[in-house]
Amino acid sequence: MKRFMGLDVGDKRIGVALSDLMGWTAQGLETVERTNLKKDLQRLEEIIKANEVEKIVVGLPKNMNGTLGPQSEKVLEFTERLKKRTDKEIIFWDERLTTVAAEKSLIQADMSRKKRKTVIDKVAATYILQNYLDSINR
């Protein structure tokens, strides 16, 4: 049984989601408020160890035409640093429109703008991970 971790890496926050042990469903775990690279990576390592994560799925923000932009470069750079600190396989997943979908679902749930800001990244990470899990479990 493998547990997967999904990440939505942003400049201010990192949304974290985990799969169940069967690798079928994704649940939001937490939002890591970014402070500095060392602490950010340290927190992710703690989550990986505590939850016995086997694979990491990182949302890669692409432009609508499929090209990589400046934010993609930041995510790739962050992921390289994470790779150096863990032996887990890292998979990139197209995250186009996941934040938009997350925002819509939170608005439909009648969540206040202030509350949405605190959970949007975690929900986006859940979407990223669930889309990946659905693709491998077809």
UniProtKB/TrEMBL annotation:
The keyword Nucleotide-binding is annotated on this UniProt entry: no
Compartment(s) where it occurs, according to its Swiss-Prot or TrEMBL record: Cytoplasm
Gene3D superfamilies xref list: YqgF/RNase H-like domain
GO BP term, pick one: rRNA 5'-end processing
A molecular function (GO) term: hydrolase activity, acting on ester bonds
Matching InterPro entries: RNaseH-like_sf, YqgF, YqgF/RNaseH-like_dom, YqgF/RNaseH-like_dom_sf
Residue intervals of the YqgF/RNase H-like domain: 2-102
Database matches in SUPFAM superfamilies: Ribonuclease H-like
Gene Ontology cellular component list: cytosol
Swiss-Prot/TrEMBL keywords: Cytoplasm, Hydrolase, Nuclease, Ribosome biogenesis
EC number(s) on file: 3.1.-.-
Principal localisation: cytoplasm
Top enzyme class: hydrolase
Protein family according to the UniProt entry: Belongs to the YqgF HJR family.
NCBIfam families linked: RNAse_H_YqgF
Name by which UniProt lists this protein: Putative pre-16S rRNA nuclease
Organism whose genome encodes this protein: Natronincola ferrireducens
